[in-house]
Write a structure and sequence with these properties.
The protein has 193 residues and is mostly beta strands. It has no helices and 13 strands.
């Protein structure tokens, strides 16, 4: 198992392993930092058009929570590592990135769940658009009065993006449902359509 390869400390690092088609370990790299964590629980590796691999997650450093995105080459070398914050930071720092969509030009969009600090269990969906070099170009949140969690983002070939989310009625407002999925669409700048 990968977690038996020494040294291994999943609470502060990120493991990059490459296997052949028979399941034999070809490459193993462990990325750690003594001052922060790297936790990518939801988003899988996403292949870029230039054969890079993107991953996203959240990190804790000096008491603050932030999102991160890392781009690797296929040998596990880090090409760039970028941090991004909740749109409500520093009042509320909770951020949980969930999906990456790579565009034809290698720019990419990350969907995330943010806590919006407006009551019990209120979270909202957010999008972060990065250019090919990993520089943040825009960020946008989409506020509702329920607990929301984005799961998938796809490009609409006509224009913009469609975001698939899950919502529940776990806040104090009774909306006559327990949980449901819903879709919403934004344009190329993240503006709700």
């Amino acid at each position: 198992a990968v977690d038996s390869i020494s040294p291994f400390d999943f609470s502060i690092g990120n493991v990059f392993s490459k296997y052949n088609s028979n399941g034999q370990l070809l490459l193993h790299r462990l990325y750690t930092d003594t001052s922060r964590t790297y936790e990518n629980w939801e988003a899988p590796f996403t292949l870029t058009n230039d054969h890079g691999l993107l991953t996203t997650g959240y990190s804790f450093e000096n008491g603050d929570m932030k999102g991160f995105v890392i781009k690797y080459d296929t040998l596990g070398n880090i090409l760039f590592k970028r941090d991004f914050y909740s749109l409500f930071y520093p009042i509320e720092d909770f951020i949980s990135p969930s999906d990456i969509l790579v565009l034809d030009n290698n720019d990419f969009i990350i969907s995330a769940m943010l806590e919006n600090n407006e009551g019990t269990n209120n979270t909202t969906n957010a999008l972060y658009k990065f250019n090919e070099a990993g520089e943040l170009e825009w960020e946008q949140f989409y506020d509702k009065s329920t607990f929301e969690r984005p799961y998938a983002i796809i490009e609409d070939q006509s224009d913009g993006f469609i975001i698939g989310t899950w919502t529940s009625n776990t806040n104090t407002t009774n909306n006559n449902f327990i949980a449901r999925t819903y879709l919403f669409k934004v344009d190329d700048e993240g503006v709700l359509k």
